[in-house]
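look at this stuff:

>
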Amino acid sequence: MKIGIIGIGLIGGSFALALRRGRALGDARLIGIDRDVGALDAAQALGVIDECASFAAVSTCDALMIAVPVRQIPAVLAEILPHLRSETVVTDAGSTKQDVIVAARLAFGGRIAQFVPGHPIAGRERAGVAAADAGLFDGKHVVLTPIPENTAQSVERVRSLWQGCGARVVEMLAETHDAVFAAVSHLPHLLAFALVDELASRPNAKTLFSFAASGFRDFTRIAGSSPEMWRDITLNNRDALLRELDTYEAQLSKLKRALLARDGDALEKLMARARHARDQWMAGELDGFPDEAT
């Protein structure tokens, strides 16, 4: 079996390493495809992939993983189509799903059934194949957002690939996926980037950062993520993210009113509710993913 991985960075590289570690697919051969020749050479030197190839190698693959930034996915889909066999299943790792599905329909047309959309809920701030980790997906959710044209067999093949990486696979509608992740992923990233940028623009920025400690580090950790990737994600999930920004601004307005009124009781109640919810989440009591996603 040959598995092509288009985009040999953190996610694509970790996917390859996880499959190699698990050996769930026996002696499957992992084919790296990337416009960055340096990334391919590094991946092969690190033992992440078995061989480097061009897009023409898609014709030899039984399954394809597209692990590039979401704004690059339409071009990749168009480029692989001339080489794609009818029995090859294609999936992706994009952080937004409705836009990717639209792009796949435009590119694949009547062959859209071959494309099974997906999104691994895992990552880290470091990018590139050097940061790839065979254990990145262990116990993590991978969301599949199948479309009506997908066959049960195609969805199961993609599910098996991710399970072979140690992931927990769930399914949901693409619209639900984009709304959920606008709230719990895309909005927090935007806020972290905004806070660091605002503080860095102040005349006393050096003083501020010199006194920033663990709380600031924890809150802003995700501001170390790839600007290119998060630019694409925020623009591609624009509508859902704008709704979340409106909701968050309303919450900030509540806090501001409480501060203006010196309303310590309102502030404490909000903080207590937030702490309780976070404690429940950390304890796994708010994990509704498997039930809600069926």
Observations:
- The first strand starts at residue 2 and ends at 6.
- Residues 9 and 128 are 4 Å apart (CA to CA).
- The radius of gyration is 21 Å.
- Confidence is low (pLDDT under 50) at residues 290-294.
